[in-house]
Write a structure and sequence with these properties.
It is built from eleven helices and twelve strands. Helix 10 links the parallel strand 10 and strand 11.
Length: 276
């Protein structure tokens, strides 16, 4: 997986962690001391970020050798060896924390996504991510969401039209906001409108939008919105989604469920690096 800007991301993150160098490692070990190490999974989950971890070690030790035991998108179990590496001791230890931070976080995103995807089976609803991502990591986090079986929502503000609550307030209503968009937007772009209540669902439907986002609706209100829309628009649900209620929401017949938790609050998948 080679995402544009990943090398710059790795270098900036290493600079943040290393500063002027690893004082402890540099004092303890000569620069030519070789070492072997393994990155081991301590939890079960979907692995993501292997290539990003590899880039970390290549920057600090260009001659490092890798052996992948588990590839991105594979499910790892506690005790599984994710990566074996051989290189200079200083390089391995100085890249350890940054590599693990990437691996643990992205694997956590992929794993949590897979749990939501599994929870809504066999309903045909799609699990979406959001723009609630960690600064600088959006493309990688959305990559991890896909590895977990989810679908990407907008990558950024330039990637789709979504008229939200503040847009509606500034325009004076949904009808006016949609009118302004239609006058200028490319004809191939669909319009999505965020609704905060059933009255706004009706207004968005009358405006002829293609997608309606039900924001923080109760289960009863979601079911009512599905009845109102009658497949005249696609329905997305967001806000307050948990593993405990996502299946009930999927059962209402909505098309999409977007979950900020996938990226902003995914628990890290525990891993460790151990020198052999």
């Amino acid at each position: 997986m080679d995402i544009l800007g990943s090398e710059e991301l790795v270098k900036n993150t290493l600079k943040e962690d290393l500063g002027r160098g690893d004082i402890t490692g540099n004092l303890l070990f000569p620069p030519d001391l070789p070492a072997k190490a393994e990155i081991i999974a301590k939890d079960e989950g979907v692995i993501a970020g292997v290539d990003l971890a590899r880039k970390v070690f290549l920057v600090v030790n260009p001659g490092v050798n890798f052996e992948y035991s588990i590839t991105d998108g594979s499910r790892g179990r506690s005790g599984d060896i994710v990566i074996r590496l051989q290189g200079l001791a200083r390089g391995i230890l100085s890249g350890e924390r940054v590599a693990l931070n990437f691996l643990q976080h992205l694997s956590g995103v992929a794993t949590l996504t897979s749990r939501f995807v599994e929870a809504v089976k066999p309903y045909p609803v799609k699990i979406l991510d959001t723009r609630k991502t960690m600064p600088g990591l959006r493309l990688w986090e959305k990559y991890a969401v896909r590895l977990g079986g989810g679908i990407n929502h907008r990558l950024g503000l330039d990637d789709g039209i979504l008229i939200k609550d503040n847009h509606i307030r500034l325009c004076g209503g949904i009808k006016e906001a949609v009118k302004r968009i239609r006058q200028q937007a490319p004809h191939l772009m669909r319009i999505e409108v965020e609704a905060e209540n059933l009255s706004q669902v009706k207004e968005a439907l009358e405006a002829g939008v293609e997608i309606i986002l039900l924001d923080n609706f109760s289960l009863k209100e979601i079911a009512r919105a599905v009845e109102m829309v009658e497949r005249k628009a696609l329905l997305e649900v967001s806000g307050g989604i948990t593993l405990a209620n996502v299946r009930e929401i999927a059962a209402t017949g909505v098309n999409f469920i977007s979950i900020g938790q996938l990226t902003h609050s995914a628990p890290a998948l525990d891993m460790s690096l151990e020198v052999i």
